[in-house]
Amino acid sequence: MSPSFEPLKNDLLLRTARGEKVERAPKWVMRQAGRYLPEYHKAKGNRDFFACCRDPEVASTLTLQPIERYEGLIDAAIIFSDILVIPQAMGMLVEMVDKKGPHFPNPLKSPTDGQYQEIMDRKVDVKEELDYVYKAITLTRQKLKGRVPLLGFCGAPWTLMSYMVEGGGSKLFIQAKTWIYKYPEESKALLLKISQLCVEYLALQVLAGAQMIQVFDSWASELSPSTFKVFSLPYLRYIAANLPRRLEELGHKPVPMTIFAKGAWYALDDLCESGYDVVGLDWLQDPAAAVKIAKGRVVLQGNADPGILYGDRAAISQTVKEMVHGFGGGKKGWIANLGHGITPFVDPEQLKFYFEEIHRLTSSA
């Protein structure tokens, strides 16, 4: 039985994502709930990062912190979780190392290392393995009381595979490149398996209460235009095509879908045809140029440099003005966001001013 929730009071984001004309640009930011907030550190306490993800009460508390701090200025909540829960569900150990980030003690070394075949053969039950995410989503929806929509998300297949073979973040991506250029067929098989799990995982997030989803291809920038078309785009399309079908099988209507492929500026035209309702842009793309490429096929999301929040208020205002102008004024076809997640040590008051400027400049006639 599906959980019951209070009616949505602010559906600005969902209307925009569906291509409707709106009264002002909706806004939220990536890494909205996180370490830039003092209340985050208080609620997290001494818990490990993944322990916070696995505790629905803690995850929902962290998700709601920016909604409460910036009341009336944020138009969406995004569930506090991590893209690497999929590799964890696939049986890989992932640790969050302080000041270093995610670490896989035993990454996939080659298709013959034994672990690869084990992972390919394993029947992964994402319903059971990631039950804590769905519980956190349902609890958060209930606590939101319809204030704003709740977003779910997953990592894109190429990005997840990169982590699984590199063992963590990387500057050179030696292992990921070795896999796609040396073992292309085995790479494609792994990417397809990840894609299938992403579809089921996202569908179950929607059943639990997520009203929109986003796919994060954080390492798209590491692929050339031609390799992106082989090792990322087909799997992004797979998710976009199969998630609505899976939701219908489960008796649920499709929800708006966003793709954010960081650094894949060269693929914007392809992404506009990939089946998603919204295409997120990083700060390396010019808003007006992106609008010309998109030609109204999708809603665009983005895309201020997160580093602007370290600047003074005049710089923030100027950036917002350029965005509002470039994206056409904010009444249609644009979800205001940063071009990536909030970076450490940002003053929360600077983010508040960023939101206020978007609100001011897109609310005016």
Topology:
Blueprint: H1 12-17, H2 38-44, H3 49-54, H4 56-69, E1 77-78, H5 85-89, E2 95-97, E3 101-103, H6 115-121, H7 126-129, H8 131-144, E4 150-155, H9 157-166, H10 174-182, H11 184-208, E5 212-217, H12 225-231, H13 233-249, E6 257-261, H14 268-272, E7 278-280, H15 287-294, E8 299-304, H16 313-326, E9 334-338, H17 348-363
Parallel strand pairs: 1-4, 4-5, 5-6, 6-7, 7-8, 8-9
Antiparallel strand pairs: 2-3
Helix pairs in contact: 2-4, 4-8, 8-11, 9-10, 9-11, 10-11, 11-13, 15-16, 16-17
Brief characterization of the structure:
The protein is α/β, with parallel strands linked by helices.
List keywords for this structure.
heme biosynthesis; single chain; globular; porphyrin biosynthesis; Uroporphyrinogen_deCOase; two-stranded antiparallel sheet; 9 strands; TIM Barrel; cytoplasm; 48% helix; alpha/beta; UROD/MetE-like_sf
Description:
This protein has 17 helices and 9 strands. With 365 residues, it is α/β, with parallel strands linked by helices. It has a single domain (11-363), classed as TIM Barrel. The strands form 2 sheets. The protein has a 7-stranded parallel β-sheet. It has a two-stranded antiparallel ribbon with strand order 2-3. Helix 8 (131-144) runs parallel beside helix 11 (184-208). Keywords: Cytoplasm, Decarboxylase, Heme biosynthesis, Lyase, Porphyrin biosynthesis.
